Amino acid sequence: MRRPLKKIFTSLFSSTLLITPLSSLAGEVSTATSDLGYFVSSELLNNGNKQVHLYKLKSDGEASIIISNIFPDSVENSFSATDYTVNQQTGKIYFLEPPRNGIEQRRIRVFDMETNAFEGFTNITNLPGSGSPMFIDIPVKMENLADKKCNTTSASCGATDTKFISLGGSGTEELIRIDDDGISTGGTNSSTLVKNNSDGSVQIGADGNDVDVVADGLNINGEAIFTKNSDGSIQIGADGNDIDITSQGLSIDGNPMITKQADGNIHIGKNSLITPEDHSTLSDGRKVHHLWAEDDNNTKIPLNIYGSDLLINGTSVQGQIDDNASNISTNTSNISTNSSNIKTNSSNIKNLGEGVAGSTALTAALSALPQTSKESKLSCGVGTGAYSSRYALGFGCASKVSERVDINAGGSYVFGGSKSYGADSLGNRVIKAGFVFKLGELNKPVEISMKDKQKLTNEITDLKSENKNLNKKITKFENEKFELLARLERLEKIALGDLKSKDLVVYKLQ
Fold first, then answer.
1. CA distances from 478 to 464, 472, 485, 490, 492 (A)
2. Cβ atoms of 218 and 212 closer than 8 Å
3. Is 394 in contact with 385 (CB distance < 8 Å)?
4. What is the DSSP-derived secondary structure letter of residue 100?
């Protein structure tokens, strides 16, 4: 197999990415790339075709391929040093594509150095058919960027002439001028931006509207704004109207505003509102942060939220106090009302209990009254009832209208009067009325009168006596039957000739 032949036929082309600024301070590192540049190389393939590849060359000499076959539509795949140009401002490389087979239209392929990728093709227009373009970079006029100059009466700068750097151009085109004194705007309306004064201070801005950085701080228009005092404190503002930042904290016009004392507590104000640096732990394990106030004798004094409302989790504390005061007043009134109601309820409950007891006694008395009349046309009765120290007396009658219909009526009275339980009362009298209607076949009542009962008792006694006599007769009949049977047996033996003398002795002839 034949090895591929690689040939570098162009020199390295560079861009602004290849410029690495020198650093004058140890530890400073440039953000610019350290790569040496890009180059294009052709490769002869086994089939005799040629391809052009784009490589990147690192500072250690290592080359790595970025894009393979950068002209896939071209047959010739040739490349020369005039077939590209670099846009320093946009960081893009423009490659002129070799002629394509049978196509006159020439194209440029655009490569972005930041993304390391091609953006596409751009057609070249208005070229003669036989034209063969060659790239020429657009020159940069350096004096429009930065130019080192001097103030002199000679044709050239001398060793003693004041030198400066001009940015943007000359004359009215000049934007910035940098000289030994500092930095100023250029052109006809120049003004100081930064200036080194003879006293060693640095002035920012023109006189009358400047900020001066001096050895002990910062001044604006000549007035001290920030000053580092000899005791190490930082003073903001002039004496008498200043804020001092000390090792302990912050003071205003010499009065402590926020200070951290040796015990670690943080004081706010002269007569201080105090809070400790760290939280505390209560006996139940909860963590809290304390806050209190002291007077100039270090004696704890009350905290007073003056003229403003105090909110806790968005809720007004004073509002809650006012609501609670109103609620307490309402509750006090309600408690008094409830006490009265409870007393009334107790009385009502007692009366209700006595009333229920009376009602029970009334019912018991009613239940003792006759419901029907069985032995006579009319039956009346008196009943009584007692329950839980209440006593009632009832009276009522029942009448037999027919064999199927009975009616009854009555009433009862409880002693001790009616009982009120608030909304109503339980009375001490009750009446009742009702009727009994018998359905179906009528059966004689199983109940008998005392006269019938006595007569029935006598008959039962007589029957018992007769039954006793009858039992005696039955016993006598049984004895006679046994004697007759014995005689009959003897007679049978006599008749059969089997009678022995002893048989005649045993039984007595009557």
1. 21, 10, 11, 19, 21
2. yes
3. yes
4. B
Q: Would you state the structure tokens that stand for residue 69, as one six-digit string?
A: 């076959």
Number of Cβ atoms within 10 Å of the Cβ of 190: 13
Structure tokens at 458: 């006598």
Do 294 and 259 meet the contact criterion of CB atoms below 8 Å apart? no
Point out the least confidently predicted range of 3-7, 355-359, 453-457, 459-463.
3-7
Any idea where the domains of the chain sit in the sequence? 5-139, 143-298, 346-437, 471-510
Closest Cα partner for 292 from 308, 277, 303?
303
DSSP 172: G
Could you give the residue ranges of the DSSP H alpha helices within 284-387?
A: 317-367
> What one-character DSSP code corresponds to residue 159?
T
Q: Which two tokens stand for residue 181?
A: 């004194």
pLDDT digits (tens, 9 = 90+) for 42-82: 888 888 788 889 998 888 888 889 898 888 888 777 788 88
CATH number (3.40.50.720, 3.10.580.10, 3.30.1300.30, 1.20.272.10) of 346-437 reads: 3.30.1300.30
86 burial type by CB count under 10 A (0-12 exposed, 13-18 middle, 19+ buried): buried
User: Is the separation of the CB atoms in 234 and 245 below 8 Å?
Assistant: yes
Contact 196, 181 (CB under 8 A): yes
pLDDT (0 to 100) of residue 22: 38
Tokens found for residue 1:
């197999």
Q: Which amino acid is at 454?
A: Q
The full length of the chain comes to 510
Please tell me whether residue 317 adopts helix, strand or coil conformation: helix
Report residue 417 CA to chain centroid gap: 66
Choose among 53, 94, 93: nearest CA to 72.
53
Residues 176, 185: Cα–Cα separation, whole Å: 5
Provide DSSP, 294-314.
E-TTS-EE-----SS--EETT
In 3D space, the residue among 244, 245, 250 whose CA is nearest the CA of residue 270 turns out to be 250
